Model the fold of this input.
Amino acid sequence: MKNKGLACILILLLALFAISASVAVPILCRPFYYAHIDALDMPEKTGWTHEQIRKAYDDMMDFELKGADFATGDLKWSEDGMTHFADCRVLFRLDLRLFAVTGILLLAALILFRSKKETPARLAGRGPSFWAGVLILVLFGGFGAFAASDFDRAFTVFHKIFFPGKTNWVFDPAKDQIILVMPEEFFRNCAILIAALLAAFVAVYLAAGRKRRQ
Done:
């Protein structure tokens, strides 16, 4: 039975899975950050050792993901800085939960489709994955082009959207020294990684959606 409602749900699940998975990679992959320590000459620029910088990042991420007490190794931090990372923790955990839930639901959908009791309808001759790819392009294509042309402004817009009415994301390096080892280049590379992963998902989705049978 071809089900249009199921197709729409599947489109949304596929898009949310791709987005949450792409964002989860730089959150969970600490070696991605570690590779920046020497590549960006952080020890030479800050005077801290590779180990001190790595420990500061690990302590902060343990707070974000494992519920540890907030710390940044040997680096100074302030209450305002901590509250921003607490705000980030909410978003990080939301993304990881979304990644897990959409993954489970997509697996359940695959099992359902294999039973042939329900199958999603093709919309305008295209499968749900095709329209999921289109949805991702619509949602992120414009902002991606904006970020590529003016990353500083895009970075500011991003924080104003996700941290409305707050200014604690503007760090004073004298009070929150971890910002000295999380330079703009690192965040730009995180954005590039996320964009590359999303592009890969879109390519796969568009190709799969063109096939007569998925």
Q: What stands out?
A: Residues 13 and 106 are 7 Å apart (CA to CA). The chain has one domain: 2-210.
